[in-house]
Amino acid sequence: MRKVNEIFYSIQGEGYFTGTPAVFIRFSGCNLDCDFCDTEHQSGVMMSDKEIINEIIQYPARHVVLTGGEPSLHISHEFVDRLKKNGFFVQIETNGTRELPANIDWITCSPKAGGETVILNPHELKVVFTGQEMSQYDCFNAQVFCLQPCSGKNTEKVIEYILAHPKWRLSLQTHKLLNVR
């Protein structure tokens, strides 16, 4: 059984897959406590793998995003296998503080303050910019480096940084800008 905050169908609003139709499985609970978190961790329903899959196969997209909270607290190699056997491309959005099953198709690591990041080779590194020292991310070996304003409040500073450091690309929370879920 896994504690699920919500399951919904929308477009991916941020990062490399922005605009991609996806089924989101938002898990409850996290091992960090970020000021800007948009998940209500006390909410949630315990669901079996079968119940989760029965819910997500109702949607036409075959891109699933495991998010949270911190989804690594709730998933296993077997769970990811079940998703893949049902035809899903599996993306995870993680803070990177815990090891992940090796069978995930796309790892988006978004390190947060207060946690030691152990995932240094994600497919995508997505950093929420709060003014922190950016050299701490030099140790990451990612295919894509995304820098995201914190709740849209510091977009100009993020663009300035990206223009000076072109390995980074801009990630906006387009779902919030467009008022979609």
Structure notes:
With 181 residues, the chain is an alpha/beta fold. It has a domain of 125 residues: Aldolase class I (TIM Barrel), CATH 3.20.20. It has a 9-stranded mixed sheet with strand order 3-1-2-4-5-6-7-8-9. Strand 4, helix 2 and strand 5 form a beta-alpha-beta unit. The model has no long low-confidence stretch (mean pLDDT 92). It comes from Bacteroides sedimenti. It catalyses: 6-carboxy-5,6,7,8-tetrahydropterin + H(+) = 7-carboxy-7-carbaguanine + NH4(+).
| Number of separate helices | 4
SSE order, one letter for each helix or strand: EEEHEHEEEEHEH
Mean pLDDT: 92
Beta-strand percent range: 25-35%
Helix content: 10-25%
- Which CATH architecture of the domain at 2-126 would you pick? Alpha-Beta Barrel
CATH topology of the domain at 2-126, by name, is TIM Barrel
**What is the CATH class name of the domain at 2-126?**
Alpha Beta
Task: Summarize this structure briefly.
The protein contains 4 helices and 9 strands. It is of the alpha/beta class and about 180 residues long. Helix 3 links the parallel strand 8 (about 145-150) and strand 9 (about 170).
SSE arrangement:
Blueprint: E1 2-11, E2 21-27, E3 45-47, H1 49-56, E4 63-67, H2 77-85, E5 89-94, E6 106-109, E7 124-129, E8 144-149, H3 155-164, E9 168-170, H4 174-177
Parallel strand pairs: 2-4, 4-5, 5-6, 6-7, 7-8, 8-9
Antiparallel strand pairs: 1-2, 1-3
Subunit structure: Homodimer.
Keywords: 4Fe-4S, Iron, Iron-sulfur, Lyase, Magnesium, Metal-binding, Queuosine biosynthesis, S-adenosyl-L-methionine
Binding site for substrate: 11-13, 26, 67
